[in-house]
Amino acid sequence: MIQKSQCSIVIVLFLTLGFSAACKSDLKSSLVGKWKSNSEEGWEFKPDNKFERMDPLGFTLTGTYSVDGEDVVLKFEDEKNKALEPLKVKITVRGNEMTLNDGQRVYTYKRASGESQDKSNSPKTAATPLSEVDKYKLSYAARLSGDGEMELQMIQLLGEVDEMGDFDPSKINYKFHDAQEKWLKQNPEFIKEVDTIEKARAYFKAHFPANK
Questions:
Q1: How confident is the chain (212 residues) per 10-residue block, as mean pLDDT?
Q2: Full-prediction pTM beyond 0.70?
Q3: Domain range for residue 172?
Q4: In this structure, are 203 and 147 located in the same domain?
Q5: Quick one: which of 22, 36, 127, 199 is 20 to 30 A from 79 by CA?
Q6: Taking Cα atoms as reference points, which of 36, 71, 74 lies closest to residue 56?
Q7: Are 43 and 102 in contact (CB under 8 A)?
Q8: Are residues 99 and 170 in the same domain?
Q9: Looking at the 3D structure of the chain, how many domains does it have?
């Protein structure tokens, strides 16, 4: 029999690994937009994985970018649109502030005026109150969905996030998760209802209040 302390460790590991992956998957959507500093125009990251880099001298460099875990790979292009040697940097987005670390220096930028922060960083609230059972079902469906946005929506709804809307392990609601596990054991028919990724995603989309 698994002791409660062991169960708590399992929950921490699952939530930390699973939800941190969800937050990473949102790096790209958080990155999209224009970023400026006091000394330069900065960067513009576009939804189609293209970027523009406006340097302090007024030159505009272009290229493509991709997210690799917690890093961003930048592929600058020359005047003939040929890709140059990729540059891997570490980028962190917190609200309207972006920091870029190229391994030699850390640069800080602010989201350009008029640019709205991506909605994935802002906690979403339910349009109508949810019962605890509703939350058990949605949380379980989000867990099985493999969809970072759904998982992030759920942990924000449960309040397991910091002031920026990112997953915070110190705010895991153990009481909720313990009660959820007991409910799932008593209601195996629901587990069958969402026993595939497709079913889990469909259930979450149909029942999460913000999606209605």
A1: 47 48 63 83 88 80 87 83 81 88 89 59 54 95 88 88 80 93 95 94 90 60
A2: no
A3: 4-26+120-211
A4: yes
A5: 36
A6: 36
A7: no
A8: no
A9: 2
